[in-house]
Amino acid sequence: MNIVVAILGISFLVVVHETGHYLAARAFGMRVLRYSIGFGPPIFRYQPKGSPTVFQVCAIPFLAYVQIDGMNPAEEIDPNDPALFPNKGVLARMVTIFAGSFANYLAAMLIMFGFYLAFGMPRSVESQDAMIVGEVGPGTPAEQAGMQPGDRIVEANGRPITTIRELQAVTQPRAEQPTVYVVERDGQRLPPMTITPTRSPEDQGQIGVMTPLVFEPVSVGDAAYSALLWPLVQTRVQLEGMAALVRNRSTEGIQGPVGMTRMATESAERGPRTFIPFIALISVALGLFNLLPFPALDGGRLVFLGFELITRRRPNEKVEAVVHMVGLLFLLGVIVLVTFRDVMG
Fold first, then answer.
1. What residue stretches are annotated with the PDZ domain (predicted)?
2. Closest among 137, 146, 110 to 262, alpha carbons compared
């Protein structure tokens, strides 16, 4: 059941993204030929009377896409058809492309706003005499070693541990170095765990544990303010993470569809207080990823539109089509490799 919830949650975010494109396109009078939820043979299809758009649900109801007429640079374009994507002004086209990521950011804000109102604002609670694990991050070194919420970390690298600060003092300098941790569970000391901390964007070691959280009620105003800032903070963190991956020439932080679904499933198993912020985080990640200035992504298309806006002349359509095709093939190759790693790992 949890994996179904996870898949539906991720698919919902893609639907949100494509809905942003669809609403912006329709607002500017563009013709949308197809709005599809999923891939493969359609199992449900509906076209409202007088509408050019076919709404469909396919046999594989995972992800979604919107087909805007004339958006493919390789298509033959009728310059007299005002409803085609390329026949609209450059700002209208830029807004339409940007609208997908904007919808994801807006969704993250609304999700966190509802979360804060329903559960309150999370605050870490630190014990003064014991390092109690409140949460173990999905896919983190601590989880892979078998650490669980409620465990008490009593020793790290030969040093006694009683607080989170003592744990950080030992762990942070030992990024990518095997380190022995001693844990007690239900009053019983477990065999020592050898854990290799990952390197954070701040170039510090981390194993992926948090102290217990309490949730304090907040006002509507405070919830709205925190929800507004939350996606911006997460964007900064994710950009720092991407920079660290490039700097360290590592792909450890990259998750494919299998890895992402696994993490979402694990979050769902921990309950709504973990799953809801995770879905909001994925929404931010989806919006940010699509804005990267890479061919085939929305950000890549915005680069070409930005060129047109600055130079007041359009790029060569055939060159743009080739660039996006090469980018798409590269992205598909990366997805295949990462998925293979996730499955075999």
1. 94-188
2. 137
Q: Residue 203: its pLDDT value, please?
A: 76
Give 169-213 pLDDT, tens digit per residue: 999 999 889 999 999 999 899 999 999 998 876 678 999 998 888
pLDDT value, residue 248: 64
Give the end of a domain, one of 189, 211, 233.
Answer: 211
Dist. CA 130–CA 133, nearest whole Å: 9
Same domain as 130, residue 70: no
Q: What is the pLDDT of residue 322?
A: 83
Asked if residue 187 and residue 114 are part of one domain, the reply reads no
User: From CA 50, how far away is CA 27, in angstroms rounded?
Assistant: 17
Tell me: do 9 and 92 sit in the same domain. Answer: yes
Q: How many domains does the chain have?
A: 2
What is the C-alpha end-to-end distance of the chain, expressed in Å?
A: 23
**pTM of structure:** 0.82
What type of residue sits at position 266? E
Q: Which DSSP letter does residue 312 get?
A: S
More confident residue, 172 or 329: 172
Q: Average pLDDT for residues 155-182, to the nearest whole number?
A: 92
Contacts for 310 with CB less than 8 Å, ≥ 6 apart? none
Cβ proximity of 277 and 227 under 8 Å: no
- Burial zone of 23 (CB within 10 Å; 0-12 exposed, 13-18 middle, 19+ buried): middle
| Residue 273 resides in a domain | no
- For residues 198 and 206, is the Cβ–Cβ distance under 8 A? yes
**Domain range for 167:** 126-211
273-288, pLDDT tens digit by residue? 888 999 999 999 999 9
Q: 258: part of which helix (H) or strand (E)?
A: helix 257-269
Q: Which of 158, 187, 211 is the last residue of a domain?
A: 211
Q: What is the DSSP string of 60-127?
A: EEEEEEEEETT-STTS---TT-TTSGGGS-HHHHHHHHHHHHHHHHHHHHHHHHHHHHHH-EEEE---
